[in-house]
Amino acid sequence: MIFFYLLLIVAVALIIVGSTLGGALYLLSTGVLVLIAAVLYLGVNSVARRHFAH
Question: Over 80: is that where the pLDDT of 25 sits?
Fold first, then answer.
């Protein structure tokens, strides 16, 4: 769960920096990709935990 929170913090920081700086669209897109990866990680982790618990 700590890894998810770390990815979430990195994603939010990259999105904020990318949106405030004018020419840093690559930071904004990287932040969005890290955010998607964090959500996917959380989903896979919860499904795997539920599947192997039985």
Answer: yes
